[in-house]
Design brief:
Layout: H1 5-21, H2 28-34, H3 39-45, H4 49-73, H5 78-99, H6 103-109, H7 111-138, H8 147-166, H9 171-176, H10 178-189
Helix pairs in contact: 1-2, 1-4, 4-5, 4-7, 5-7, 5-8, 7-8
């Protein structure tokens, strides 16, 4: 679905207001006023604040998927690509949540809205992970019996680390133990000799 410039601008303004004042302290009037558009224009694109919030989340997650696509497109060996993908993904989610100020608290608390917006992005991510796995298989680097299940397990693992990584609980531990993480992951994927 093509997004109009006005709709995109409304989402950007809403993101800034949500980040600054929080979702609950921002009204549709605030968004209309800050965007210098009338309420009628705002309601042309969005039925309510929840819908514009979902659009904000979707736009932020789409930005993240674009960064991940860039990693997958790189001309590096599949092992290195997968490792870069993992750390780029975690850093991108951290940046996304940090960048959104007050929205940060709602981002992980309002799981239903985030999950709804993530479905499309998750499907795109699965394609990227499967592509990297297939590339590793084709280059005789990975041994994977079932690409679908392996990709799903990688994605679930990454999602499980998102919140602690974003909250700095484990980010430094992961960064300082990067080599051990790489060995662990690649040991699971390596083709047996």
């Amino acid at each position: 679905m093509k997004v109009s410039k006005t709709q995109d601008m409304l989402v950007s303004v809403a993101r800034e207001l949500f980040a600054e004042h929080g979702f609950h302290n921002t009204t549709m009037n605030d968004i209309a006023n800050a965007s210098q558009k009338g309420r009628r224009t705002l309601y042309t694109y969005f039925k309510n604040k929840d819908e514009i919030y979902a659009a904000v989340i979707e736009k932020e997650l789409s930005r993240a998927i674009e960064k991940l696509k860039a990693v997958v497109e790189r001309d590096v060996n599949p092992e290195r690509k997968l490792i870069e993908y993992i750390f780029t993904r975690l850093d991108t989610i951290k940046e996304l949540v940090s960048r959104n100020g007050s929205l940060r608290g709602n981002f992980f608390r309002d799981v239903y809205e985030v999950e709804k917006a993530r479905r499309k992005i998750d499907a795109e991510e699965m394609i990227l992970i499967k592509r990297m796995l297939q590339e590793g298989i084709d280059n005789d680097m990975f041994y994977v019996e079932n690409i679908d299940i392996t990709a799903m397990m990688i994605q679930f693992s990454l999602r499980g680390v998102e919140i602690p990584y974003t909250r700095d609980n484990i980010r430094e531990k992961l960064r300082s133990n990067r080599e051990n993480i790489i060995k662990f992951l690649l040991r699971a994927l390596k083709k047996p000799n």
